[in-house]
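Illustration: Methyltransferase.
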Amino acid sequence: MTDQQLRDTPTATATPSPSFLTDSPPAAAPAAPSSPAPQAELIPAEDPEDTSDIDRYEIDSALGSDAASFMYPDSVTASILEDFADAYPSAQVIGSDLSPTQPEWVPPNVHFEIADATLTWPWKDNYFDFIHIRYLFGSVQDWPALFQEAYRCCAPGGWVQSCEADIHFYSDDGTTDSEPALQKWADLYERGGAETGRTFFLQQEALQERSITEAGFTDVRIFDYKLPVGGWTNNRKLSELGEYVRLTLENDLEGYTLYLWHNVLNWPREEYPQFLAAMRKVIGNRRVHGYMMVRYVYARKP
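Result:
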């Protein structure tokens, strides 16, 4: 997909953000992703009406229809597990999380367990045929140890899939580079990750693929996607996807940022509401052609 196909407005500078962000010298633009050229441009929306999503397609391609047991540690929505269980009715699907927030009504071949994916996993060796790990950026100190546990619990011939986002705001036309709110967003996660020892930017260090390879997995496959933020693209489906992303960010912005701002970095409390307002303003500006990068890594246990 070309830059022109991704844009529906000319290159432009977005409306300035509140003064508390513009008084400081502008930070450098986010570095371009260090990963190889993407094999696809945009990740499909998780639309409940659309069952042909990227997970389903690539899992089918990798596994066929005979896999027996699947594992989803942490941060996977119940709807994904339900779709997966419906697609593989003879399989047993386990979802794990730190909190008991799972729905009561699920397919009969789905159940949930409370477990911390960063500790020793409570399952025996060679137990799962497929392990899906999703959106743990900012919560893991030892990524090699995580995938060593995945390797131990994965059956020979089984697959692991890791999906993580780089939450920098990128743009192909530079429209995100001069937005102080986005620079503050990046600084929040870079400093917060450094302070906690839990990075939010796995792609910069190739942590997924390196850790998976070091654990002993083979046939490593990497897929990068651009995830649009907002409905600025002139492609109808991608514009709809971008609107879902924008609404999600706007709705959950405080939940994403409050702990790092107040508890980890102890930044000025009086500036926090202004930061939220500035972020919502730039996210909703269709003249800012921002996107995030999402990386899927697949690998097989010999």
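Reading the tokens back as a structure: Residues 93 and 166 are 28 Å apart (CA to CA).
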